[in-house]
Amino acid sequence: AQAAPPPDPVVARTLFVTGEPGTGRSTAVAGFAGDDPMVVLDAASALTEEPGRWAGRLATLAAQDGTVVVLDDIHLMPEGLAVLVRETLDRGPAARLAMTACPADRLPPAVAGLAARCDRTLALAPLRDRLAELPALAEAMMAAERPGRPVRFTGHVLEALGAQPWPGNLRELRAVVAGIARQPCGGVADMDRLPPRYRASAKVRRLGGRELAERNAIITALYAHDGNKLRAARELGISRTTLYRRMQALEIADECSVL
Q: Which GO terms describe its molecular function (predicted)?
């Protein structure tokens, strides 16, 4: 299932895609590239590679007409090299150029300025903000896993999936669906087919919007800090004691924080 309609490769020469990992950034870039070959240049490698060598590789690739150069995780790039990318964009490279980055509100200023120079920008929402689409996404993923062998998700399964924070986004949902698809289920996927940590209780499924948002924020913070409760509490602006109390009240088990 694609995260978003791909941009028109005929119109756009440059693309800037933002979003959390797993939201479909690679899918969007592949749609942009179409049939043209892609060459990925990891921006994080600029942190360990000699800057002049990395800049030389970019210049060589940017000069190749008919190629799509993908600068992956460009928010990790040193500021000095971001200036170089800006100059490359201003010159109008022969190759088409796509960049992926973290959500726009977390971009360093030098990298954020690159988006304004691109023909197209695409901001991909996290799955937790797209829960209304989750049933259709899950069904499309299941159809891809089991072509010609339809599987129906029960209402309780869809409710349980809708109660998850999905820190891994579409990638995480796809892994859950693939796990269900590998099981004999007779055309119906019920609660027994879900991994235990995704079987939200009836209480969790009845949570109001505010409590569900709080539960999702806590699990996402725990996931971001590899289950470290002290660091997660600091990010959330609460004490560790309060975090433990809210985890108990919202039925957040330790394993919910680590995928």
A: ATP binding; sequence-specific DNA binding
Range 57-61, long-range pairs (CB < 8 A, 24+ positions): 58/84, 58/85, 58/88, 59/88, 61/95
Cβ contact 97:68 at 8 Å: yes
Structure tokens at 2: 């694609």
- For domain 14-125, say whether CATH 3.40.50.300 is its number: yes
Instruction: For residue 57, count other CB atoms closer than 10 A to its CB.
Output: 16
Backbone angles phi, psi at 116, to 5 degrees: -65, -20
Candidates 124, 146, 120, 164; CA nearest to 2 is 124
* pLDDT tens, residue by residue, 138-171: 999 999 999 988 889 999 899 889 888 898 999 9
Tell which CATH classification among 2.60.40.10, 3.10.20.600, 3.30.70.890, 1.10.8.60 matches the domain 128-257. Answer: 1.10.8.60
DSSP code of 106? G
pTM above threshold 0.90: no
d(C-alpha 145, C-alpha 180), whole Å: 10
